[in-house]
Amino acid sequence: MIGNLYKSIRRFHFIISSPLNYIRWKKRRDYYRNVYLKSEAWQRKRYVVLKRDNWRCKYCGNKATQVHHLKYAKYNIGKEPIHWLVSVCKPCHGKLHR
């Protein structure tokens, strides 16, 4: 609960402190979610990561169905190296984003 409040406060401060930066961030986020994650390039990279990790979650060992970014490419969406990505199961991925 406190973590979510902290995130909300940080987001609010970000919006108030620089509306232009917020607009840029929102455009990048929307592009990432709506375009890049649906692209063939992402599907190939996702497959390579899952295969590398033997389709196993790096955190619990269950069957992995998703790929988690440890870091994001700051300026070039989609240019993250493979070692920044790990295979995860859906429950572990949810925990990582809370």
What structural category characterises the helix and strand content? mainly alpha
Largest sheet: 2 strands, antiparallel
Which spans have pLDDT < 50 for at least 5 consecutive residues? none
Outline: globular
Helix content: 40-55%
Distance from first to last alpha carbon: 10 Å
Counting H and I runs of at least 4 residues, what is the number of helices? 4
Radius of gyration: 16 Å
Characterization of the model:
- The chain is mainly alpha-helical.
- Helix content is 53%, strand content 8%.
- It has a two-stranded antiparallel sheet.
- α1 (2-17) packs across α2.
- The model has no long low-confidence stretch (mean pLDDT 84).
Concise overview:
Helix content is 53%, strand content 8%. With 98 residues, it is mainly α.
List the helices and strands and how they pair.
Layout: H1 2-17, H2 19-34, H3 40-52, E1 66-69, E2 85-88, H4 90-96
Antiparallel strand pairs: 1-2
